[in-house]
Amino acid sequence: MRLARLLTPDGPVVGRYDDGTVVADDGRYEVGRDGRLLPPCDPTALYCVGRNYAETLDQMDYERPEVPDFFIKPPTSLLAHGEEIRYPEWTDELTYAGELVAVLDERCRDLAPEDVPEVVRGYTILNDVDALDQQGRTARKAFDGSAPLGPWIETDVDPTDIDIETTVGGEVRQDANTELMLFGPREVVSYLSKRFTFEPGDCVAFGSPANPGLVEPGERVEITYEGIGTLSNAVVASDGE
Questions:
Q1: CA 161, CA 193: separation in Å to the nearest integer?
Q2: Mean pLDDT throughout 167-183?
Q3: Stretch 196-203: mean pLDDT, rounded?
Q4: Can you tell me whether residue 211 is helix, strand or coil?
Q5: Contact (Cβ atoms closer than 8 angstroms) between residue 93 and residue 214
Q6: Gyration radius from the chain CA atoms
Q7: 65 confidence band (pLDDT: 50, 70, 90)
């Protein structure tokens, strides 16, 4: 089942996504006519694991981590599917990275790996936008608009063997499978839960496969995860052109 959030003139609604329609408790809403998609959850934080694919380590000349290597994006970094990614005027190196994301369904902490599926609502997609020429991960990755997320949450998917494809301007840039992760989804969520208390809607992203790369204004980034869907966002200049 796909779960989506829609912003209507009367406020957000939450329901089952079905072929362009959000079916909520109080009726059916057509995406585009009755409102626009929001990020599919409302997290207090996005916990993002880096350096989680061997090919990416080789490409970026990173050392292999012994434990999951992570950083945090704040809620203000969120963008919805279809919203424009504004190219900040203070960077010359904006990059994309297509990542799988687990969305937590309840308040929890100190999880064993085998308990993780019980607290995960489902999976969605993140574009981990990065201003590569800035100093420090927070400056690079935590700015407003650096976390396009969506388009919905898929509740029925096995995260351990999913094909990934990222295109930029229609050209395939990333083509991989989640089985290539160094640390699997259950292991990552368990590891982070020893350090943080998760709240409902919090997100855990599992890192990018090889070939994260530069984007320019005028290009569209589309990230597809098998069994989930496609997250699509256009990049525009900071002045909106």
A1: 23
A2: 94
A3: 98
A4: coil
A5: yes
A6: 17
A7: confident
**Beta strands at 213-214 and 94-96: parallel, antiparallel or unpaired:** antiparallel
Task: Please give the distance of CA 85 from its chain centroid, rounded to a whole number.
Answer: 14
Q: Name the DSSP letter for residue 38.
A: P
* CA dihedral sign of residues 47, 75, 137, 177: positive
- Distance, CA of 221 to CA of 163 (rounded, Å): 17
* Helix (H) or strand (E) run with residue 139 in it: helix 137-141
Domains and CATH numbers, the chain: 1-38 (2.30.30), 41-237 (3.90.850.10)
26: exposed, middle or buried (Cβ count in 10 Å: 0-12, 13-18, 19+): exposed
CA angle 188, 191, 195 (to 5 degrees): 130
Beta bridge partners of 150: 125
pLDDT digits 0-9 by tens, 84-132: 999 999 999 999 999 999 999 999 999 999 999 999 999 999 999 999 9
Please indicate, yes or no, whether the overall pTM of this predicted structure exceeds 0.90: yes
